Amino acid sequence: MRSLHRTDPGQLRLVTPDAAAPVAPAARAPASRPRPRRGGGRNLRMAERLDGVAAQAERDAMDAVIAGADALARDALERAAAARKAARILRAGPGGVRDLLAS
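Below the sequence we write its predicted structure tokens.
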């Protein structure tokens, strides 16, 4: 059973340190600095991966032509073209996609 008389107000009380008391450097909050961007971000990394996919597809197309499989070569060239187009879209960013798709 609970008591009807509460001595605790039920709120968090913030205690500030005295101005005279020194604050240890480890107790201070670290200065917020923007994180350095490495490699241009996720879109550019994916664009580089797509360039690799396109290069591999072009090699597959050459191998298919040598083997005499024209349908496989055509599919590989289409795959390479699609990967290159996707890489261009990622590099263009949100502002340049409209111009890229219009061309």
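The two ends are 76 Å apart (CA to CA).
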